[in-house]
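Subgroup meeting minutes
Present: P.N., E.W., G.H.
Scribe: E.W.

1. P.N. recapped why we're keeping a running log of single-chain structure predictions: easier to compare across weeks, and new members can see raw inputs and outputs side by side.
2. G.H. added today's entry (361 aa).
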Amino acid sequence: MNAAPSPPTGQADSEATPHTVLFVAGAGRSGTSTFAGLMRLLGLHVPQPEVPADDSNPKGFAEPQWTVDFHDRLLSDAMVTVSDSRPAAWFETGRIATREPERIAAAEWLGGHLADHPELVVKDPRLGWFLGLWRVAAVRAGARPTFATMLRPPAEVVGSKQKYYRNRLGSAHLASSWLNMLLHVERATRENVTDGGRVFVRYADLLDDWTRVTMDVAKRLDLQAVLHADQENLRDVHRFIDPSLRRVTVSLDELALPRRLHDLTEQTWEQLNLLAEPDGDTPEVRATLDQLRDAYVELYEESEAISRSSVEVAKTELKRRLRDQQPAPRGSVADKIPHDLRAKIPPGVRTGVRRALGRER
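Output recorded in log:
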């Protein structure tokens, strides 16, 4: 029997293409939008409608609006913020992710798009909190789940968030949230190591030589649309990729982090970089990342214990304002808490205090 003819170069056989979902994870402002947008131009489908572009991302987010709304609701239920630095936040989102109705909703949403497009790319900075949910949903929808985690120097991630999101929680909080996200995302995608279903991509490498990086990703994850991209697709990507997209360059020393936090961030960045090297995803590197994750949990617990007085003051102030039902005057107790200590107060407490005091930030 003769084998079926292969599709011509630049054209994948959509009927023969295995259903695959590429989930793009990582901290916000780490190049996830660039990577997802590139994959879209090379033939993967971003479920519509998308989040519209804005000044912080003028080339677009390549981000399905449905997933953003879905994740916002789940994070609200879990009382977790997008850039939550609490290790315990993973327990809260994990509890939400096991809800059967949520898994059914995600699987049905994926299935509806897979019916017309065999390869999807799904990206959202909130995605990392619910990787287990999405792995189950993809399998239920008859698709192979794959994961790409974007790596950008943590100082640049912090600087970009401060510039474009006007984040006032400080460098220590943002560096901690980067650690919390990347260490747990790496752990959550280990199920895909044996089948080659996860990759780590440096943002700088993508901007410097996107053809080499994307072809390597496509081969490792067996993304047929990318492997069969035609010349028009490639020209579109050449116009899309611009080294000036790396608009924030900050060094770790410039963040002036507490010494232990600085060292943990630096060591974690070094180990994550090894995962982006050929054959770098080794048991030894994963074991070191486990140790770093344990060290971060210990550091966070110590910080919580030290800042307990600030938490109690914030709670007292909250109760007082709720009792009086009056807007907080300027120079309230909360305003007098030093910024570095205020940043260590658990996000859930800070959020409650701000709302009770009638303050947005």
